[in-house]
Design a protein that fits this description.
The chain is mainly α. It is built from 6 helices and 2 strands, in the order ααααββαα. It has 2 domains: 5-57, no CATH class; 61-153, DNA Binding (I), subunit A (Orthogonal Bundle), CATH 1.10.30. The protein has helices at 5-8, 15-22, 48-57, 61-71, 131-153, 159-172, and strands at residues 106-110, 126-130. A two-stranded antiparallel sheet has the order 1-2. The protein starts with a helix and ends with a helix. The model is unreliable at 1-10, 87-96 and 98-103 (pLDDT under 50).
């Protein structure tokens, strides 16, 4: 299970903010939640200014995708297809989205699927894939996830307990 999506993104905020959030205080200024004004009681921050600072520091998934895309030069990790050759890419500001680009889409893929324990936000667990490679990898991933679920559901007895029982039973048997 992935858990709370807000917790998944906590790695991009300072430890001091994380601690304040745990204490149910404003992560920016430390004001206690009981002292928040009425309209901010259901938000992590006490004021509009603190909220703006908080969300500016946190990165969105789209921002994360664009950073990885730039770092990997828009090259498909599966087949080497260069997604930067087309007009949607100008090298700096306008990044392609995962929408149709000259016949191929691109996807920010998790190398180790989240369902198999891969990290959602760790850049080392990400790769750029074109739509063709992504379909192939997704099919493999789904097979591995299904196999992992089947293994998890198997009732495998504790091998140490079985070995102990065997040892006891063989020592109690009389040899001819």
């Amino acid at each position: 299970m992935i858990g709370n999506p807000r917790e998944l993104r906590c790695s991009d905020i300072p430890d001091e903010w994380k601690e304040r959030l745990k204490q149910k205080a404003c992560p920016i200024c430390g004001k206690e939640r009981k002292d928040f004004d009425g309209r901010h009681r259901s938000t992590p921050c006490c004021s509009a200014d603190c909220t703006a600072k908080y969300w500016d520091a946190r990165k969105t998934w789209q921002h994360h995708r664009n950073v990885i895309y730039k770092e990997r030069n828009g090259i498909c990790a599966g087949c080497g297809y260069d997604l930067t050759k087309y007009p949607a890419w100008d090298g700096d500001t306008r990044l392609p989205t995962s929408k149709f680009i000259q016949g191929r889409e691109w996807v920010l893929d998790h190398i180790i699927p989240i369902a198999l324990g891969g990290s959602m936000w760790d850049p080392k667990n990400h790769q750029i894939l074109c739509e063709i490679c992504n379909k192939e990898k997704t099919a493999r991933d789904l097979g591995q996830i299904a196999a992992a679920k089947r293994l998890k559901n198997l009732k495998i007895p504790d091998l140490n307990a079985i070995m102990e029982k065997l040892k006891k039973s063989t020592t109690q048997q009389k040899l001819f």
